[in-house]
Amino acid sequence: MTDVALDLPELRRRSFLTGAALLAAMPIASEATLAQAKMASQSLGVLPPDAVIINANENPLGPCKAACEAITAILPYGGRYDRLGELDALTKQYAAMHGLKPENVAFYAGSSEPLHYTTLAFTSPERGLVMADPSYESAAMAAKISKAPVHKIPLTGSYAHDLERMVAADPQAGLIYIVNPNNPTGTVTPREQILWALEHKPAGSMLLVDEAYIHLSDEQSVLDQVVAGKELIVLRTFSKIYGMAGIRCGVAIARPDLLEKLMPYYQNAMPVTALAAARASLSDSELVPTRKAWIAKSRLETLAWLKAAGFKPIGESQSNCFMIDTGRPAKTVIAALQKEHVYIGRVWPVWPNAVRISVGSPEDMARFRTAFKKVMDAPQVALSTRNDEGVGSRTARFLS
Ligand code: PLP
Hints:
The chain has 400 residues and is α/β, with parallel strands linked by helices. It has 16 helices and twelve strands.
């Protein structure tokens, strides 16, 4: 039997793929694909065995013990779809934990999916996307597909989203995207300011609050606004504090009439392993406080060392990533660290001298400190003109 390769341009030429289906048949930008697209000349799959991987805001702790056991237990049932009703059970468990109704909760294989679909659903050439700069790029990439204007508003002096400016940026805004805590800075936007934006956003626009990192911070969630029936969509993921990035589970939380708007774009069965692992993770009441403290310790120790050594971290991260102003082209620092087998995050064009560091284990951060000092103490090297953007990646081609 010959496998038929999926040829998107060919599919697009065919007339049966129209409207929402056409828009959805495009790559979804996730932290994994973005990190990989920016790796210099090698893919994540072939990193050396001693690599320190702090480039994609992953959690070095991985899934908790209960999640691993739940995956093992459900594997024999993996030959069938969700025969055991895992999705239903997870939906009810999640809703009950947050005072929501099950119809407020929709699970996906990671929150990149509902982020992409929300952008496609609420933006168009006439209805723009408003976001912070720097912030997580995925929505802007989806807006390329819907051909929506993108308004990038600089962060404030305290590196919060500038919600007054964001709300005023486009009277025709289709979507206002808030990431709290923000990726890449890890800095938070106070909840009261998000509530203000919810009340003052332009008529007909949607507020999307991405709480991928909320458990790592002291900031309060806005999920209660969904309970109150307000016009917003909240995203959460099991990729960060729950350590399930490779297992894939995310959730969109909103009024049912809003969640329905995402449905034309894509609906697929959830992997039963992800559902079982998510349920087990939620049942572990120690997980969030223990991991929050573990990651905060590693972050604070690294930030204290950086400051003491005269380096310049940007803002006060409350997350599993932070940025450093290196005072030189960040690409050169990334490439030099890579030679030390330390893989850090990508560059945001608005801050070409800043690097993003994901918080790894204490051992990872010790290796990072040694390598970073060595790189920063060495004479600066000129930027190579070679294309080092990971040209092998399908997403890289789409992004360029
Ligand atoms: N939103 C933000 C702000 C992120 O940083 C990420 C990943 O890093 C995601 C959403 C998507 O995560 P996932 O698709 O793994 O749930």
